[in-house]
Amino acid sequence: MSSPAFEIPPKGGFSFDLCRRNEMIAKKGVNPPSFRKTGTTIVGLIFQDGVILGADTRATEGPIVCDKNCEKIHYMAPNIYCCGAGTAADTEAVTDMVSSQLQLHRYHTGRESRVVTALTLLKRHLFNYQGYVQAALVLGGVDCTGPHLHTIYPHGSTDTLPFATMGSGSLAAMAVFESKYREGLTRDEGVQLVSEAICSGVFNDLGSGSNVDVCVITKGHKEYLRNHLLPNPRTYVSSKGFSFPKKTEVLLTKITPLKEKVVVIEGGDAMEE
Amino acid sequence: MVKQQPNWSPYDNNGGSCVAIAGADYCVIAADTRMSSGYNILTRDYSKICKLHLIYQHQHNKQMSCPAMAQLLSNTLYYKRFFPYYAFNVLGGLDNEGKGCVFTYDAVGSYERVGYSSQGSGSTLIMPFLDNQLKSPSPLLLPAQDAVTPLSESEAVDLVKTCFASATERDIYTGDRLEIVVLNADGIRREYMELRKD
Fold it and tell me: Which among A21, A37, A42, A255 would be 20 to 30 A from A4, CA to CA?
């Protein structure tokens, strides 16, 4: 009986071949590499003229801050922005991908993108990956049908809300919204409330921190206020500065020449072409 | 039957960092004041620095010296070798000659006299910087060299403030306020500095 000359490719769908191997390795103590997560506070609310989104700017890798000023409010369309919490790579990739798809759709239809279009594209993608793409999003925008605000969970479910928060700091931010939100806020009141909610996350949640980004979207106009608030300056800068000795000290230098292993034959054959 | 994983652990990591530096005639001990659990802050005002010497003084009729205290702490920790205290300690003080001395511990009481040390969640960020600036001589070198740093007291305090300001930038468990205690021949001096609260 001869074995097949080539492997028959799998029929499609998920392949779980490596799961047992991963479990075995994990039992031996070697853990899979950690992801960079944006332990985050992201918020959105609807005010009288449109939508306001807010986000903090800290990205963490476990207990260490890896980026003190990252951008969590992603561009989707001229009238739609999306805040992302969860694994940083996932939120970036999924928002970039849907942003390109929306652009192609705009060329195809000749019309402004609608928020529900972005919503459907995102939720279909996330559901398809059964929660493995860990992106929790707050999607907001203003289109021809009015202002919209949605939350999208990593498994693909969505909610449509007048105000929303996501991320590790969502409880701190939601506490602020639940006490102070009302319908028909003005632009300045809305920005003030969003900033307060993000600051609540920044100071009370260890996964969120640094600065506050705000994005105001109204009919036909958007304002991206990057670093709208900087409530965390560095507390101490030494006046005299520090000097750093050049490099690692050389304790011992020992040079061992390698013996040559070439045998030279006098008058040997010339090299042939 | 597969060994059951416990549902509850008696230990909780409350985060934070501490540092101590020994000088020729002073000792600087500093720690942040944040206590946290998971992603939450429990309090911003928890002192991690304790003064130890009264019981010994009553029993032995003399002030407790720093090396004696170091041994006591080691024994206290090792006593609980099979259900350890989840504590990483740094002991700082002045020895009998008035020179600064710093002892660093692990969770079960192994200790060593050093010129400077840091423990806690920010120690991985602070220790390399102290190694670079204070460069302790190797304990293997002969003749045995003093572990204390030649820096002046104010320079050491400046160094400690910079260490914590930097550790706070990158470690989520370190922040709120810095408590600095300086021990020298004149006595004990306490100083506070605000750190980032996010």
Answer: A21
